[in-house]
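ok so I'm stuck.
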Amino acid sequence: MNQNDSKNIPERKALLWKKGLNSGMEVEYGYAELEQYLKEFAPIFAENRYGLRTILNKSNDWESYLILFVDKNLPLSDYSTVDIIKIPGGLYATTLCQGTEDDAVQHIKNMKSELESKGYKISGDIIQIVQIDLSVTGTVESLLYEIQIPIKSL
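replied:
not stuck anymore, here's the structure
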C-alpha cells in the first residue's frame, strides 16, 4: 500500500524508550514500559499513538527507538530508559506502508532516493506511526505504518 503526500505537521511530544531495538520481544516490552508512564486505563494500541523514531546515523545505518505520543508533560521518576522528546513541526513527506518493519525500512530508503531526486533533503528524524497493529490484524504482513519524513528544499 502506498500513498505519497506532503503536509505540515505541528510540533509533538513523545515518550522515547532510549534502548535500541533488536527483537520483537524488546518492542513489546518497550511499549509496555512506555505505557506505564501514562497512568491511563485505556490501552494505547489501535490509537495511532505509538511508533518508531528512526535515525540515519553517520555510517548510513538505521537506528530505531520506540516512541509513544503524549499531549502533556509527565513526571518521570526514572530517566535511565525513558525521556520526553519534542518532534519538530514542519513539512513532512508522508506515505502509508503495509507489511513488516523491514518493509517499512525499505520503503524509507526508496522515499529517501525519490526525495533527493526531486531536490529535497531529509531534515530530521523519521517517524513511523503504527496505524494498524497486531491487535487489529493478527498478522505481521498486515501491519500498516504511516511514514513521516521531515524535508526541506536543497
